[in-house]
Amino acid sequence: MSRTPLLRAAVVGTGHRAQMFTRALAARPGHRVAALCDPNPTRIAFHNRLLAEAGEPAADAWDPDRFADLLDKEGIDEVVVTTVDSAHDHYIVPALKAGCRVVTEKPMTVDAERCARILDTVSETGTSLTVAFNYRFNPVHEKVRALLADGAIGEVLSVHFEWLLDVRHGADYFRRWHREKRHSGGLMVHKSSHHFDLVNWWLADTPQEVFGYGRLGFYGPEAGERHGLRRDYTRAHGAAPAADDPFALELAADDTLRALYLDAEGDDGYHRDRNVFGGPVTIEDDMAVLVRYTGGATMTYHLTAYAPWEGYRVMFNGSAGRLELEVEESRWQAPRTRITSASGALHGDTAADHAGGARLTLRPLWQPPAEVPLVTAHEAHGGGDPRMLDALFGPVAGGAATDTGAVTHPTATERDGALALGVGLAANRCFETGRPVPVRDLIPGVFPGAVD
Asked: What is the rounded distance in angstroms from the CA atom of residue 408 to the CA atom of residue 103?
């Protein structure tokens, strides 16, 4: 099929996060969503309604089993992969081989074998893959990188990164497919890859060795019984015991969640509102990790997925001072009975309840500390999403490009995706073995001179 100057796009996976890409492509000249690929026709229909609202024609619906036919018959130029993490490579590899530009949601994939398959394909085809690490485009994070690159604290010797998911947003990873490590790689891969990429990028360095401990101590049936939090139900919809459970998600009360998931259950049987204290849960909710970088710096990282507030603290210790970042995305959560809105439970879409702010403090040696002025946003991952979308697809029709902030930088590549993944995979291996793991043992393809 002959190609036209209009770039024809396929969006693979039509869940909640995919809305951002469908809307972004529809709003930008030179792009058209030509195909939607998902086993669930109800969710595809939802995305076609989004296209209609944007004045765009409906996209053709395709089953994942026919993805190769989709690429051929639709004349696809670009593919956006935003499906279950463990399936990313099923679409990335054939799309790269077909000569398409490919953008994948993070994480790039969930294990070493799939990562090697992607890297081998990039090498064989001479192409490249873009990984949607939107946190790089957050202006606060850009400011941090600029200060470090300018030597504001001299040589960075160590980093401490504490990340807290609250009992609303954090619980959400234990309601859905992410709770099974075979699908998501666990929070070390699915979520922490955000931060591992950030630190790799901030330091302009490569992670070398990882050690860590992880456990399931709050969610899941055993912990739920131990702490007196467990209610006896499998999924929240229609379950009387869920009525007084502040951890339950009421799909019917939110128009988007109802359309994407509750109304779509008849197609595939997927339940989006499972009991966070039910089984099976095979991922951790409390993780402590130590990373050593090639340049000599170390990072201590702690993830808590059941905190009373949400946000993160990052401290950089350098030869000439210290840089401290604190971001409060939600200062606390009210003990409401059942969650009836996607806001807060689904990170990055809207401002979280009780949103706080960001504070960046520079503490030079022998000088008083100084607060660094910041431009902050609570929506869209701190403003990172619109900046990333402009970098990926150009400005919105009729609008100017979003300011790229203090530092101009390229989008993340397959190497960046592999290095962030490598830290998470090494951490997971440590949780199992109790021994340090060299990152190159898991992803040798990105290390010069490495031998498989």
From this structure: 19
Q: What is the DSSP string of 107-121?
A: SS-SSHHHHHHHHHH
Write the DSSP symbol of residue 417: H
CATH code of the domain made up of 136-381+413-429: 3.30.360.10
Q: Which residue in 334, 299, 311, 300 sits closest to 381, CA to CA? A: 311
Q: Which of 146, 142, 141 is nearest to 161 (CA)?
A: 141
How many whole angstroms separate alpha carbon 286 and alpha carbon 214? 6
Query: Residue 115: is it exposed, middle or buried by C-beta count within 10 angstroms (0-12/13-18/19+)?
Result: buried
The per-residue pLDDT for range 336-367, each reduced to its tens digit, is 655 655 555 554 444 556 677 899 999 999 99
Cβ atoms of 56 and 26 within 8 Å: the answer is yes
**Cβ atoms within 10 Å of 232's Cβ, excluding its own:** 11
Model confidence, pTM: 0.92
3-34 pLDDT, tens digit each: 446 899 999 999 999 999 999 999 999 999 99
Provide the edge-to-edge strand list for the sheet that holds 370-371: 370-371, 358-364, 321-330, 310-318, 156-166, 298-307, 286-293, 207-215, 437-438
Q: Report the chain's terminal Cα–Cα distance, integer Å.
A: 39
